[in-house]
Design goal:
The complex is a heterotrimer of chains A (155), B (657) and C (177). The N and C termini of chain A lie far apart (86 Å). By secondary structure, chain A is mainly α. Chain A folds into two domains: 100 residues, Cytochrome C biogenesis protein (Helicase, Ruva Protein, domain 3); 47 residues, no CATH class. Chain A has six helices and no strands. Among the domains of chain B are: 165 residues, no CATH class; 100 residues, no CATH class. The longest helix of chain B is centred in the N-terminal third of the chain and has 32 residues. In chain B, a hairpin with a 2-residue loop joins strand 2 and strand 3. Chain C has 177 residues and is α/β, with parallel strands linked by helices. Chain C has a single domain, classed as Glutaredoxin. Helix content of chain C is 40%, strand content 18%. Chain C has a five-stranded mixed beta sheet. In chain C, strands 1-2 form a two-stranded antiparallel ribbon. The mean pLDDT of chain C is 89. The chains are: A mainly alpha (155), B alpha+beta (657), C alpha/beta (177).
Chain lengths: 155, 657, 177
Amino acid sequence: MRRIVLTVYALLAFAAPAFAVLPSEQLSDPKLEARARHISQELRCVVCQNQTIDDSDAPLAHDLRVILRERLLAGDSDDQAKAYLVKRYGTYVLLKPPFQENTLLLWLGPFFVLGIGGVLVVSYLLGRSRLEAAPQLSTDERARLDDLLKPDAAE
Amino acid sequence: MAAEIGQYSLILAFLIALVETAACLVGAGRRDRALMALGRAAAFLQLAFVGTAFLALAFCYLNNDFSVALVAEHSNTTQPAIYRFAATWGSHEGSMLLWVLILSLYSAALAFFGTRLRETLQARVLGVQSFVASAFLGFSLFTSNPFIRLDPPPIDGAELNPLLQDPGLVFHPPVLYLGYVGFSMAFAFAIAALIEGRVDAGWARWIRPWVLGSWIFLTIGIAAGSWWAYYTLGWGGWWFWDPVENVSLMPWLMGTALLHSSLVLERRGALVSWTILLAILTFSLSLVGTFLVRSGVISSVHAFAVDPQRGVYILAIIAVATGTALAMFAWRVPQMRSGAMFQAVSREGGITLNNLFLIVLTATVFVGTFYSVFIRGGQGISVGAPYYRLTFIPLAIPLLLLVSFGPMLNWKRSDAGEVIWRLRWAIAAALFLLGIGTLILGVSRAGAVAGIVLGLFLIFGALAMLASRWRIGKDSRTSFAQRVWSTPLPVWGLALAHAGLGITTIGITAVTAFQTNKVIQMLPGQAVDLAGDRVTLDSVATVQGPNYQADRAFFNVESSFGTRELVSERRFYPVSQTQMTKAGIGVGFFGNTYISVGDRANDGSIVVRMWDHPFVDWIWVGAMFMAFGGMISLSDRRVRVGAARKAENLAGAAALS
Amino acid sequence: MNRALALIPVGLFVALIVTFYFALGRDPTKIPSVLINKPLPAFSLPGVEAGTPGLRSSDVRGQPMLLNVFGSWCISCVQEHPMLMELAHEGVVIDGIDWRDEAIDGAKWLNQNGNPYARVGNDRTGRTGIDLGVTGAPETFVVDAKGRVRYKQIGPIDADTWNNTIAPLLRKLRSES
């Protein structure tokens, strides 16, 4: 049932005349517009599957793009503009997950794996090298070895 | 009629797979040659019946048999024939059938080509393969039967999504599946080794071509998918860190590690446990990917219509297959130590580091993809490209830096200083270009310059390796031509593959850092500047396609290299009531011009989006170099011909049967 | 590789499988509402027909009630509509927001299909919907007497959802106030 609603909306995204960022939406100030484009690329289109609001054709994406530009015109900073949308749709709308308590593992995980893996690998490699250092022969043993290796030694 | 043939073939294939599993595994355990021969014969029969089922389904599609539910859902009489055929795998049920077909193909190939392999090893590998095959055939039959009928049948079917009506659909899924389903062979070899409790020279030589072959297909498959997305989606993106894309990248990363690890295993008998673990994990990642796309756990444009019940079944298959494999790993591997020694600074050491980084990169993609599934309240967290840019990229850089050093390291023990000396020209050139680039483009662009120089360093490193091999600048008894001619094929393969990686790196960096974009409303006759080129909208016409109507816009692009015409269309498909844009792409050595039109306004003006994508094609050209390098290596008979049956144990490997 | 290390992959794997198992059945496209346990954001919408009072956020309080987002363009809303009519008939107070719709179209739709709403506001631009975090129609908020959102239903309310989730919640809210 619920799937139908979202499918309908997704289909509307294709059928509707609205688009990924339209000329008519763009701000006249190129700096502000560049900021708007940049932020749009970090915001998820919440009714699409894995698109940014910058790319999406969905009507809701259009609305969010327009709102974003309004906020920038009103003088919001990048973070404030994003916060405006997060207040309404939650952190889900951010494609760059915030660094908070429940995303610690997400952000630090890869480096953590590198750290632990690094330690394991280095100790593994050093272990292999240590085995390589053969016990040194004593002088006696060396002499015996030389004897054995003489050309007239039996095969 | 065809559907019935397909249905019965599928049932027979399932039963045969069960027989094959029993015959092979029991036969190997008892060294019963008759049973093992039965297993091999069953492998061929399985292929025959799965193939028949697949062809039957394709036949239904081609003949517009709408009494078959799948055909009614994904095909239409107005759809061109080639897409009616490709729609065979455009659904969950159909793609599952393709999956099992490829699995059967690999099994049959081993049964056919593996006559010189130790019989019990071959039997065990086939046994594991057929176990996986029977699990998925059962899955197909009991939860995802492609041959379910509709009564009464509709007059016409629903149209295949217009975005999928493209040669990409004919090419990308089968090649991709040949790749990541192909890693099932490595998985099967690993389990066979764990059953036997030993790894011998034969095993190491036999696993390599299967790993290499799968890797080549997967490389091509992923590149094809990326390129398809680029030209078909209309906004010039080529990688979205979509969960389903990630899930094809992970087996590729692991598969690359496996490839290098098996090389060490064959040459020096070292990294036994690494190789086995990587073989298990690579295919397990493929299985997890299969699970992901069909279970509704994660949302994605690629996901099939979802059913959590099917998800449970696949999860059970993964739990049994991978769980058993890893449990056996924990049990057996401590006894399978190889005694091969090597210094930390050596090619073995380098490849171990390579493995580490590839595993870390895989873990990064894994964490990013599945994070929202793991944590409570994870539905509020979404992970997109910005995350990967801050984690994957920084972690990939050290790996890319080390790639050029690897082939210069000697086996067993090497001297770091000597390696650096051998690469001195490559290093010097890279540093020089880094300096110049930063000077010309400015410090703010230093990151982009570094990325491109890194790619160039990879290419220089490959050339340096060849030069060192050919003893350029050194005295030698043989002539230069002789030295080049006698270069072993795998060395060419290595050079091509590593250079290809460099080419891809350059492409990715350039297009990410230097692309430009304009979005404007244009009237016919209007011209605009784009990254130094002049783009003029000549005219817009209304056209009729086989199953669509379109506004077709003609553009003229003037650059310093000449003029060219580009055409972009905005199409409307009446059957499915959907719209899509076909982009006009001007391909060039230094980059592409990418134009995408939107709707026409009442005053005759049309929305135009245009991009300049510097060096973007290098991404896929690099991938093709990598695949081609792999193919060259694979063509060397020494890589493909395994050791004879009575191979000796690798030095130091404990023998336990 | 020693035994301890070799056990790590299995261990992690088991944890993974268990996690995936519990993840099945959860719909990843349902974003949780940020408004849960928070008051409705302030809004004031005109009526769908000239002369009708419209809907203000201050109207949506006083007793546990439903706030339903619909539109004349919305196909699933037509499916949900009989359910809403029945609920309204049984005494459930439902306010409506005609979202991303011209007032005239909304009015026509209600005249054709019946009007289950105590009050209806027309949100032509869709901004109020966005302030509420609406992603599509139909969506329904369960609001308590103090005007706080207690639950958000994404998609049509069917018999199961009503019986298992919303009705018990309304009962609970009524006993609270």
